[in-house]
Amino acid sequence: MPRRVEPLDIAEVARKAGLLPHEAALRIQEYSQHGRLRVGDLLDGLAILLSTLAGQGSVKRLCEFTALPYVYSARLGERNDKEFVCVTPYEQNAEVVRALFDGTTVSVVTNAADVERKSGFDVIICVPPLGQRAQRETGADGFGGDVVRQLVPLLAKGGALYFVTGRGAVFTPRAQKTRDDLVNDGLGVAAIIDVAPGGFPGTTVEGVVFLFRREVPAKRFVGALRDTEEAVPLASALLAGPSKRAGANWAWLEREDNQTFANVEHTRLLEKLAPRGRKTVVPLGSLLVGSRVMRADALVPEEDRAAAFLFVPEYAGSRVTADPEEQTVKPKAVYRLALDPSKANTRFLARLLNGPYGKQLRADAAMGATIQRISPATLLALELPLPDLETQERIVRIDGDIGLLKAGLLDMQDAVDQDWSQLGEVSEKIDRLKSVLDVERQIADWWRELPYPLATVYRRYQVSQDAKERLGTLMHFFEMAAVYLATVGGSHVTKMRRDWQDVFAKWLHPVGAAGIERADFGFWINLAGASLKDLNRIASDAELRKTAIEIAGPELVQIANTIGSLGKATEALDVARRIRNSWIGHGGHIKPSDAARLENELQQSVRDLYEITASVFRNFELVRPGMAEVSDTGFRFQIEELSGSDPTFATEVVELDRPIKSKALAFWMRGARAMCPALPFFRLGLPQQPQETSFYVFSRVEKEGFRWISYQETREQEFVAPDDELRGIIAMGKADA
C-alpha cells in the first residue's frame, strides 16, 4: 500500500487469517517496514534461538521485556504450558502484543513493577530500546543496562537472563560497567552470542545476546548467529554444556577469557593462512639488533651499520621491502628496522609480511578509521612464523629466480619491439622455455581444470574441425565466461554488503546502456568488471572489509579477495566482444578463411584469459549441495562437483561452517569451509526435468517469463520459463532507472 500500515491493523488481520503469533509478528515487521524484511532475514533466526533456549521443560515461568512491536519468544506463548508475561513499556506496542496473543494465556503489562513476583522467573528475555540514554538516570548506558537492573530482582535463583542489545555493548565502557555491576551483584556472564545485522526490526545494527546466570559458570560459551538455520544447532550446543570440541559457529572458553566468537573465528583464519612446515613463532622485535625503530629518512646510527634493514610503511596496506629504493611510500612514513642477519633474512621477512598471512597480521594490528596505521610498538609485537635461516634463503633464491625469468622475458619483449631481426632468436628461446613448462599443452588441456560449464564449451571448441564451428564455439566460450564471471562477482557481493540491493540496482539498470532485461555480451562484461572490482574494494577498504567479515565471515572474505583478481579478465573478453561485433556477416554468414583468421586473432585473448584465471579456476568450482547433517564442528554436506566437461558429476562430502541451501547452485573454493550461493542467472535442466545436467543461462525478459539459452550441445538450446527469485532481482531499482 502507498500509505503506512499500522502494526495493530496488521496484527489483527494476521490473527483473523489464522496465523500463529510468531508468524503474525513477522508479518508486522514485513509490512510495516515497507518490505525491508527479506526472506531469510535473521529476525526469525534470533527468535528461534531464544525460544529454543527458553523453551526447556524445566522452565515454568517466562518473562520477556520488549521495546519493539515484536516478541522473540512468541513461539513459547503459543504452547500455553508456561506462565508467560510480556512487559512492553509503550502502550501502542502493548496493544499490538495483546492482539498477537489474543486467545492465549499470555499476560501483557506496560510496567515491570506490575508483574507479580511469586518465586521469580526461570527465564527473562530483555530486549530494551537502543540508543536511549537518560544522563541523569543512574545506570543508563545507551544499551538498556538500566532496564536489565530493574528486571534482575524478578529472576529466580537458578534462572537465566538473556540480554539482547547492540554489539557495541561488548566493548563500550558504559556497557562494560553495567556488566561488571551485574557480576558484582552475583550474576555471571555464561554466554556471549554475536548476532549479524538483521536481528532487530527496522535496523541493520549488529546485535549480541548476553546470558547471565546467578551461579558463576566454570566455562563461557561464545557463538555467532548469521543464518536462520544456525539457530537450533547453536542453542543445542549451549544447552549441552561445556565441551572440549568447538563447532563451526561456537566454542567454549575459560571463564577468564574475554574473547567473543569473532576473536575465535579470527584465530582460526590466521591458523589457516599461516605457512605450513617447520617453523618457530617469534616476535618481530626479537630479530632486531637493538630495540629502536627509526624512520627511513633518519641517519643510520654507527652501531646499526652492520645490520640488515627492513622497511615497513606505517600504512598497514602498503608494501614491505628490503630495499629503500623499492619503497613507494615517503621515507618519513616508513619504519626502518635494523635486523640481525644471523636470525632472519630481510627479503624473506618482506615476502612473509606481504603475503596473505602477513597482510592479515598487519591489518589486525592497525588502528584508524580512515587510514589504517600501525605503531612501532605494535609492529615489533607481531608474532611471525620463521623457518631456519637456510630455508629462508632458499625461498628468497627461488623468488629471485622467478624475478630473473620475468626480467628476461621483458628483455626479450623489448628486443622484439626494437629490432624485428631478432624475432627468430627470441622465438627459439621462448619455445624452449614453453617446452619446459609445457604451456601450450596446458592451454589445450585447460578444459580439465575449468569449472563447469566453461569446460564443456572449451572442450567442444578444441575438438571442432570446421573453421566456422570452431569460431562460433570459441565465441560461445567467451560469452559463457562473461556470464560466469559476472555471476561469481555478483554472488559474492550480495553476501558481503548490507546495501547490495542499491548497488545492484545501478549495475542491472545502467543509464544509457543495455541492462539486465535484455542482457547482451557487453552487459555481462560490465557486470563482471563492476562486481569483481567491488570485491577488491571490499578486501582493501578497512570498513568494508570489517562489515563483510561480520556478515559473511572471514573465510568467504578471504576467498573474495582471491577471486577479485579475475576482474582483469574483462579486458580479454572485451577484445572478443569487439571482434564479434565487427564480424562480417554477424548472423553467421562468413567464409571459412575469415573464420580461421578471426579465430587466430582471438588466440591472444585465450592466452590472456588463461594467464589471469587458470590459477583461480584450478580450485574454484560450481557445486550443487545436497543432503546435510549437523556435526559437532559444523554442517556436513554431500555436494555434487560440477567441474570438468563431463556432465556426470562427482559427489563428495564437505564440512562447512555455515548452512547453504540444498539443491541450489553455489560457488566453492576447494578445501574451504564456506560457500557462496549463486545468483539465479544459471539453471540446470529444463523446467520439468530439473535433474538433467544441461546448463542454461538467463538471456532476456519476455512476456511469458525469461528466456534461457544453452551454449552446450543440448536437446533444447533455449526455452522460456519463469523464476520468482530472478524476477525479484531484476525488479530492484527498475522504477528509478
Description:
The protein has 737 residues and is α+β, with helices and mostly antiparallel strands. The protein folds into four domains: 43-268, Vaccinia Virus protein VP39 (Rossmann fold, 3-Layer(aba) Sandwich), CATH 3.40.50.150; 280-386, DNA methylase specificity domains (Adenine-n6-DNA-methyltransferase TaqI, Chain A, domain 2), CATH 3.90.220.20; 394-437; 442-684, no CATH class. 41% of the residues lie in helices and 18% in strands. It has 25 helices and 23 strands. The strands form five sheets. It has a nine-stranded mixed sheet with strand order 3-2-1-4-5-7-6-8-9, sandwiched between helices. Strands 17-16-15-18-19 form a five-stranded antiparallel sheet, with helices on one face. α17 packs across α22 and α20 crosses α21. The longest helix is centred in the middle third of the chain and has 30 residues, at 389-418. The protein starts with 6 loop residues before the first helix and ends in a 6-residue tail after the last helix. The model has no long low-confidence stretch (mean pLDDT 85).
Mean pLDDT: 85
By secondary-structure content and strand pairing, the structural class works out as alpha+beta
Contiguous uncertain segments of 5+ residues:
none
Strand order of the largest sheet: 3-2-1-4-5-7-6-8-9
Shape: globular
How many helices? The count is 25
Beta-strand fraction estimate: 15-25%
First-to-last CA distance: 21 Å
* Total domains: 4
Radius of gyration: 30 Å
Oligomer: single chain
- Summarize the main sheet: 9 strands, mixed
Number of strands: 23
Helix content: 40-55%
